[in-house]
Automatic annotation (TrEMBL):
PANTHER family: OSJNBA0019K04.7 PROTEIN, PROTEIN HOTHEAD
Classification via InterPro entries: FAD/NAD-bd_sf (IPR036188), GMC_Oxidoreductase-Related (IPR051871), GMC_OxRdtase (IPR012132), GMC_OxRdtase_N (IPR000172), GMC_OxRtase_C (IPR007867)
Record has Magnesium as a keyword: no
Residues the entry annotates as binding FAD: V116, V229, W433, H434, G462, P473, Q474
Gene3D superfamilies: 3.30.410.40, FAD/NAD(P)-binding domain
Gene Ontology molecular function: any one: flavin adenine dinucleotide binding
Family label: Belongs to the GMC oxidoreductase family.
Obligatory cofactor(s): FAD
Protein name: Protein HOTHEAD
Organism listed in the record: Acorus calamus
Signal peptide as annotated in the record: 1-20
Domain of life: Eukaryota
Pfam family, one: GMC_oxred_C
Amino acid sequence: MGEFFLKILFCLLFLKSSHGGKPYMGYKEASSYTTTAIPGGYDYIVIGGGTAGCPLAATLSEKYSVLLLERGGSPYGNINVSRFENFHISLADLTSGSPSQAFVSTDGVINARARVLGGGTCINAGFYSRASPSYVRKAGWDGELVNKSFPWVERQIVQWPDLAPWQKALRDGLLGAGVAPFNGYTYDHVFGTKVGGTIFDKDGFRHTAADLLSAGRPENLHVLIHASVQRILFDTRGGRPRAIGVLFKDENGDWHQAPLSSSGGGGGDVILSSGAIGSPQLLLLSGIGPRVDLEKIGIPVVSENAFVGKGMADNPMNSIFIPSKRPIKQSLIQTVGITKFGAFIEASNGYSQSPRASTATTASCPPRCVYAVRTIEKIVHTGSFADLAADDEYPMEVLLNMSVRANVNFVPKHTNDTKSVEQFCRDTVITIWHYHGGCQVGKVVGKDYRVVGVDGLRVVDGSTFVSSPGTNPQATVMMMGRYVGVKILRERLGTGVEI
């Protein structure tokens, strides 16, 4: 009876929201794959059903056959993904079926990567903020198409948050500390203080990139979960290698080969959308990368490229934990201060395991942490926080020492040495999960995201970025999936095609 009740509850969760986005239930297990589904192969094979891969696959399916392969499972029915209040539980889940996969960087920072249909949008804090116009120009993107692609995402899964008490206090505190002007509710990346969008609806239900698959053409879009791609297959008989398909394992460990269509002059592609870690990794496993590295581990070289896996970076985060006077309604990121000294200041609250009623985390990223800590000190002592934060009990030096002990990483700590803010910044560095690079434009791929040195292969995800866009990259990465999908359709069907 209990199991039946839970299943009914999950269905209610799927259908509860009246927002534009709706769950995508057209996926199948990888073991169901058959070569007879699309005789002759697919026009496009997208590896990775994540933040970029889902909108990309949905867009391409409007005109062509698409196979989308995701190594993880479904986000639907997992309340640690779907429910706002379970955000931290999902990240702490270390089981093999978890939607997040933990790893530790070489400098001792604990991190996680997504392993679920919908990618990082299933395990992040939900904040939605566009890249700045200067970022768009630097990326060489068509501004008009960018401004059509962002709303395509937003109509389906994004809305404005109901500002929580802690977020209101942060908004007023930022303004009191001089992070001005107040820009109101906006998706735009602008200096000052603003309230951004969210992929959580009014009922606390998360909408993800997986929902964007519902915009695809069902008869053309085949989505397999628990499909772990092992390598890309190439035809090397000619003068230049061409991607012709992929080799993947299903949930039972059985192997499958999925081919690209050979019709239409070979116009289709294998498209890597496996993220900053997965995409360069799969290129290397498939024989594209530095020759010395590949030969060292016995991988035949298909195309030598010294830049694969290089230039990877992650935005650092430093958190200050502030005990509250009383229980406060939980909140994830809603308000952000975008400073001119290069830091973003934002906060969440109500997720601590401490016996105190509520603990807030105030974060700043990227570098120039010292200026951010000094700004946070001003924020905490504004009147906005007087009714919420127990700042009278905890001077800033005490808060910093508490934060040194609370921040979890494997970096050597210097507790009681927080008079040096620089030392505090070094000791407490953690991630904000915005890693990027590894397949950068101009080094591994061209401006059309085609992999240099081979045909029939592209990379479309955050691994192509030199820097992370905006205060949170998910908006830009989803937009990029839609944007590149439309560009590809226009390449094949003509520039006048309206999608």
